[in-house]
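Notes from the 1:1 (GR / supervisor)

We went over the backlog. Supervisor wanted to see one worked example end to end before approving the batch request, so GR pasted a single chain during the call. The sequence is below; no edits were made to it. Supervisor asked that the structure be written out right there so they could see what the output format looks like.
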Amino acid sequence: MQKVKPVRSVLFDKNMNLILQSDPVFEMLFPDIKTLTVFSDFLSKNAMLDDTFLMKLVIKGVNHHVCYKGIDHDETYEFQFFLLDEEWVVINPTGKHDIKDQLTGLLTERSVLSLIDNGIQRSQRDKDSYTVLLIDIAHLKDINEAFGFLAGDSIIHSISQVLHTNTRAADSLGRYKGDKFIVFLHKTDINGAMQYIKKFESALKKIKFTFEDLNFYVKTHYGIANNHEDETIDLLIQRLHSTLLEAKKDSTSHIEYFT
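Structure output shown during the call:
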């Protein structure tokens, strides 16, 4: 069932360069923005395009995403936005795509990559470290072919719940390319990422992967990339795919990473 939250709207006067109509939530999110010039500069610096994410927030212990759309009128600029909390599966009043994956409840590929792109830029600006994991479920294709897609879907769903439980609210987690997941670990180096994997693997061992009367052994591979100077989302994804490919080739280890 789809759930819809009301869109909030802030209106800027182009001629006077001032806010005509404000909103308390907007003022909380952007306390220093009083003019259209300052706001436009903020949008430009953060590479924020229509129908994407602004940022990830934790408000009173609840994880939120801020989504928005800009409308350029003749004499005014309208900024529409809404908050999406972790309980909302489908919400789409200003965008054109689902934000959360229907099977797992995690962010969709497009949604999580948008957050990671913004996370990279903020980390470069603030000189923070970050590490990104690309997690692959081994032999899921074989399971789908032998036992059907419902069996594979049950494994994907179970793993997604373990990931969600073991990932911090400040980090970004989403489903990527069907049988893969991607995690952006904010302010985390390679050692911290290895601790994340250790914790996740420990939790994974406690899960019984069953479908109807079948039991499955599940193995995961990891591609890891930490922050690089002048990183872009496209270069990051290329590095992650390369490390994941090496991890799947290596019979002695299922983890590979760039330093």
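Supervisor's comment: Helices lie at 24-29, 36-45, 109-126, 140-147, 149-165, 190-205, 233-249.
Batch request approved.
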